[in-house]
Amino acid sequence: MIKIDFVKSALTKDGFYLKNDQILKWLYDRRNTIKVNIQKIKFSELVNWGFEKETHNLVHSSGKFFSIEGIKVNTNWGSALEWTQPIINQPEIGYLGILTKKIDGVLHFLMQAKIEPGNINYVQLSPTLQATKSNYTQVHKGNPPNYLEYFRNRTSSSVVLLDQLQSEQGARFLRKRNRNIILETNEEIEIKEDFCWLTLGQIHHFLGYDNVINMDTRTVISGIPFGNYSRDTINLYEAITPMHSQDLEFSSGMFLSAIENDNHKYSFEEIISWITELKSKYELTVDRIPINELKDWNISETKISHKDGKYFNIIPVHAEIENREVSAWTQPLVESVQEGIIAFVVKKFKGVFHFLVQAKLEAGNLDIIELAPTVQCLTGNYRKGMNEYEVPFLDYVLENMDSDKVKYNTYQSEEGGRFYREQNKNLIIDAGDDFSEDLPENYCWITLNQLKTFIQFNNYLNIQARSLISAIKFI
User: Fold this and answer.
1) Torsion region of 452: left, alpha or beta (phi above 0 gives left; psi -120 to 50 gives alpha)
2) What DSSP letter does each residue of 49-89 carry, written as one string?
3) 3-state SS, residue 289
């Protein structure tokens, strides 16, 4: 029944309280109502943060929150076999939680208009609860997050619809995971001024806009299962939605890919064996080292940066956001220095859309590799002739970025609590029958139904893949 409730909410394009044309105005009003001031500063101006004398690691005086440390990486994967880099070490497991409730028979999601210091447009739609352990245990001496009690002190009036540990960006975090959780309640809930009820269909709708739905919302809703049904179910879907979808053939094809548990190119067992073979063949050794032992990285008054100006910087900022648990603070953020692109190529096999998925090794991965989009260039310059290594299928994606094969095309930002105004081009490209079936060893065709199954288990799909999957809509 839970999965049917999710399907019904995903197929509901307007909510009970706010219609789609009202939501952007509400977000705009919240942005203009709340005082926000974000400024880059010097490291010497950080409060309660500083460089350790012996290591130059950047740490908080409480020993909590997170630290910026160094790592040394050795691997037999790819062309870069050894390197050092800064990384965020945040061993805490935080909450990314969404509270849901049936309103007029349709499951609605309690979303927050949340301002983060690194957000491009300041305010984005976030989960009901988005908090690190240091935040919700009030290390900062501030107020507890809103609605925390629903997740920490659950009662018989709430039902767990989804509960998973999911990874964060493996190139920036060291083995970091968050608890992605969705609860349904039948209680009457006081709706605070920065919160509103939306259907899943509405959330999917605003994923078609640049930088409206934040990364944490995207990772939580990516795990929502829609169940396994017969192909005849698509007939019901087409009867419900023909007037709502701008591209019925593609959206209905995605719906079929999400619910169809037959007609896969590869069985689930074959895909597991493929992943296991790669994990057995390739090695990843990551040693924590002091910041002052990093090769090719420099510390100035205002940033930790690569000597060639590549990859990313660590910068200090001062933030004032008046509706937060603490209204003013300082902290480090990661600032990307190059553009990024994230793209899935999709193609039909046996009449069902399959996603071209890569197994990708990143330094912060908990178990060597995770499943990633077809193309994921987050820290390298992907322009032809300037990238440091060959990126499979990158030329195909770049050549078709402006073609009618593109079915999804937006900019989506990284999480603004750790990343400073970073956004990446997000694409889904329908390759058609002429796309070659010859693949490198770390690529495989997988249906959306199979990907949704993998998401149920820890550390299979990386956050970029989950983010892009979250954008797929059926109306």
Assistant:
1) alpha
2) EEE-TTT--EEETTS-S-EEEEEEEEESSSS--EEEEEEEE
3) strand
Supply the DSSP string of 426-454, one letter for each residue. Answer: EEEEE--TTS-----TTEEEEEHHHHHHH
- Reported as a single tens digit per residue, the pLDDT across 445-474 is 999 999 999 999 988 999 999 999 999 998
- Is residue 367 one of the residues assigned to a domain? yes
**Parent domain of 443:** 248-283+338-470
Alpha-carbon Rg for the chain, nearest whole angstrom, is 22
Tokens 């169940």, residue?
A: 227
Answer yes or no: are the C-beta atoms of 330 and 46 closer than 8 Å.
yes
Q: Smallest Cα–Cα separation from 33: which of 192, 145, 193?
A: 193
Dist CA 172 CA 88 (whole Å): 6
CA–CA distance, 183 with 169 (Å, rounded to integer): 25
For 373-426, where are the alpha helices, taking DSSP H only?
A: 394-399
Angle at the Cα of 209 (from 204 to 212), degrees rounded to 5?
80
CA distance 87 to 77: 20
Q: Is the pLDDT of residue 117 over 60?
A: yes
- Let me know: does 6 contact 224? Beta carbons within 8 Å: yes
Token pair 């190119």 is found at 265
Q: Which residues contact 25 (CB under 8 A, 6 or more apart)?
A: none
pTM, two decimals, is: 0.94
Structural domains in the chain (count): 1
CATH code, domain with 404: 3.90.79.40
